[in-house]
């Protein structure tokens, strides 16, 4: 049994030594590729990769590139092509058909700009400001007597919209994450319930705010406010480059 254990340890040590040597060799290979000139790398192309590069160059020139521009674009790919060639991966497998790669080079996709949380929250808050403005306008037209608690003032509208915008922006971001990164449903629902409770507390507190601080508007006034808020949101989205239509 002791001999078996020594044999296993010996095999494990040899395997570890072999992995370390392989890792060192890979690093040395990558360093050689990085220091090599594009022309030297082209000389190492396999027949299949050489054909791929030749056809890619032709498609780029046909797409409007000069010979120098096409060569430079392909030179930028040479290190990656050779690294994968050593692993047995051809350029066609790595990049797909020549026409696809040529199109990507000629018409590169612009990276999608990730909007910061605050920008999305403002966008959604402006949306709710417009929606609540419409709602308040309808309430003002259908209610004969003014609300003595003064819970539908312009200040209430502003803060309530900001609360809803922030809360639902957070919820929307969580739902767009991969399942493995999303918080559990218990945590998500807990945050939503807590947010709703804060809103109800806020609405209750508004009954103690003087009308001078939280003035109410007539139905037409709220409709105008809603239209202005939606117009500001439209301009804001264009300025910030926001195209997400998660809500509206």
UniProtKB/TrEMBL annotation:
<feature type="region of interest" description="Disordered">
    <location>
        <begin position="1"/>
        <end position="31"/>
    </location>
</feature>
<feature type="compositionally biased region" description="Basic and acidic residues">
    <location>
        <begin position="1"/>
        <end position="17"/>
    </location>
</feature>
<dbReference type="InterPro" id="IPR036259">
    <property type="entry name" value="MFS_trans_sf"/>
</dbReference>
<feature type="transmembrane region" description="Helical">
    <location>
        <begin position="219"/>
        <end position="236"/>
    </location>
</feature>
<dbReference type="InterPro" id="IPR009214">
    <property type="entry name" value="DUF1129"/>
</dbReference>
<feature type="transmembrane region" description="Helical">
    <location>
        <begin position="153"/>
        <end position="173"/>
    </location>
</feature>
<dbReference type="Pfam" id="PF06570">
    <property type="entry name" value="DUF1129"/>
</dbReference>
<protein>
    <submittedName>
        <fullName>Membrane protein</fullName>
    </submittedName>
</protein>
<keyword id="KW-0812">Transmembrane</keyword>
<feature type="transmembrane region" description="Helical">
    <location>
        <begin position="185"/>
        <end position="213"/>
    </location>
</feature>
<keyword id="KW-1133">Transmembrane helix</keyword>
<keyword id="KW-0472">Membrane</keyword>
<feature type="transmembrane region" description="Helical">
    <location>
        <begin position="117"/>
        <end position="141"/>
    </location>
</feature>
């Amino acid at each position: 049994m002791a001999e078996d254990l020594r044999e296993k340890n010996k095999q494990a040590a040899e395997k570890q030594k072999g992995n370390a040597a392989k890792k060192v060799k890979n690093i040395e290979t990558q360093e050689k590729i990085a220091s090599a000139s594009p022309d030297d790398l082209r000389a190492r192309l396999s027949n299949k990769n050489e054909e791929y590069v030749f056809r890619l160059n032709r498609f780029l020139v046909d797409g409007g590139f000069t010979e120098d521009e096409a060569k430079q674009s392909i030179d930028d790919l040479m290190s990656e092509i050779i690294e994968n060639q050593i692993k047995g991966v051809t350029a066609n497998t790595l990049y797909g058909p020549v026409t696809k790669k040529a199109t990507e080079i000629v018409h590169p996709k612009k990276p999608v700009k990730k909007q910061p949380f605050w920008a999305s929250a403002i966008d959604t808050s402006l949306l709710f400001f417009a929606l609540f403005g419409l709602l308040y306008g309808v309430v003002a037209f259908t209610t004969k007597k003014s609300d003595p608690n003064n819970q539908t003032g312009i200040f209430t509208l502003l803060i309530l919209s900001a609360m809803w915008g922030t809360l639902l922006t957070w919820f929307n971001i969580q739902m767009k994450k991969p399942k493995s990164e999303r918080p559990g449903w218990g945590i998500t629902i807990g945050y939503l319930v807590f947010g709703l409770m804060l809103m109800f507390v806020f609405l209750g507190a508004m009954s103690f705010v003087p009308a001078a601080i939280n003035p109410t508007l007539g139905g037409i006034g709220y409709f105008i406010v809603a239209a202005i808020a939606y117009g500001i949101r439209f301009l804001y989205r264009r300025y910030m480059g926001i195209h997400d239509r998660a809500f509206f």
